[in-house]
Amino acid sequence: MPGRVVDYTFIGGPGTDGYKRHGLSYHATFRALNGRDPLPIYRVLRLLLLSLGTLALALPQFAGAASSGVITLYHHVATDTPPSTSISPADFRGHLEYLQDNDYTVMPLDRMVEDLRAGREIPDKAVAITFDDGYISIYDTAFPMLQEFGMPFTLFLSTDPINQNQSNYMNWAQIREMADAGVIIANHMVYHPYMLDRQPGEDDATWIRRNREELLEAERTIAEHTGQNHRYLAYPYGEFDPAIKRMLAEEGFTGFAQNSGAMGPDSDYLALPRYPLASIYADLDTARTKFESLAFSARIVEPESPVTSAASPAITLQFSPGAYNLSQIGCFANSKAIPMEWIDRDQGIVELRPTDRFSGRRWRYICTAPLPGTSRYFWYSVQWINPAIN
């Protein structure tokens, strides 16, 4: 009986040895006998790829694309609000149109987080949209647009401005309307505090207890008004330290920060990255690179805490193997390259020692590497906070 023709295509990413600098694909056609797919053929191809030193990085290219999600962060959607936290309605619509027209999947935040945490694949080019604080332009401008495009989103809410009917904020009736329409309402504390700051005479135990009480109060208030209880916290100002993260873990919360990058299964679920898209970063040419970014499998070796009093803190990172070439990783601060010293290249361990001094309260080191054959980048960032600077 004639056999069926079975087509196999294997696509490789950057590899080792001579294959390190090239993205290659292997295509072979085989005839299946007795109408069944020839399972041994995969093994033959696997041996072929192994002989070329490519298999180890042929499959991670798919895994990386299907195991990465991007979380965006917005505040105001308006032209008469502080530029540093604002995007114009026209630019916001441009973001939504771009996502719609370029094969992105806009996912609910909880589905993205829980699928990746459990190691389940999500659609390639997946994005979750979030807003912080609870400003009225989210309800008046962003909410109708997102409904028009059929895109889900999450609102991280500071509850005291809502309770006090503060101007330029939504009210609880508007928030309930959004919740009833499927919007996720999550925690941004009660008073939008600098969580790292101590009150006069406050010791470590009292400081953590105060933050814990405020966290749980905000969660109760949101549950009372909306029926939602996700135990998701967006850190106000993106500030946290190991003690705050431990407190979140003890209370069963997931944490969301403001350091840029894509998230994946190996991300820190007590400080997940989000891309702030406001001011100069609202420009679509800048945003599209972030929309399509991929998650590094990376971790901080030392120091553990993002809190520092140094103006040029050094840090040691470890990058696990992936569909990228270690030699193509570049790290930057304020668009300037940071000197990198590979301590153990085989283990992906590198030390960053910037020469510039940073004078603000918050800044970031950003590391990227290209996915060969595409315009996409793996993206990871490190947050620094100096609480001594107001």
Description:
The chain has 390 residues and is of the alpha/beta class. It folds into 3 domains: 4-58, no CATH class; 68-292, TIM Barrel, CATH 3.20.20; 296-390, Immunoglobulins (Immunoglobulin-like), CATH 2.60.40. Helix content is 29%, strand content 25%. The chain has helices spanning 39-51, 55-58, 60-66, 89-101, 109-117, 136-149, 159-163, 172-180, 204-226, 242-250, 284-291; strands at 4-11, 25-32, 69-74, 76-77, 86-87, 105-106, 126-133, 154-157, 184-187, 232-234, 254-256, 275-276, 294-295, 298-302, 315-319, 330-333, 336-337, 340-344, 349-352, 362-370, 377-385. The strands form 6 sheets. Strands 3, 6, 7, 8, 9 and 12 form a 6-stranded parallel sheet that branches. Strands 13-21-20-16-17 form a 5-stranded mixed sheet, with no helix packed on it. α4 runs parallel beside α6 and α4 packs across α11. The radius of gyration is 23 Å and the shape is globular.
Structure in a nutshell:
The protein is α/β, with parallel strands linked by helices and 390 residues long.
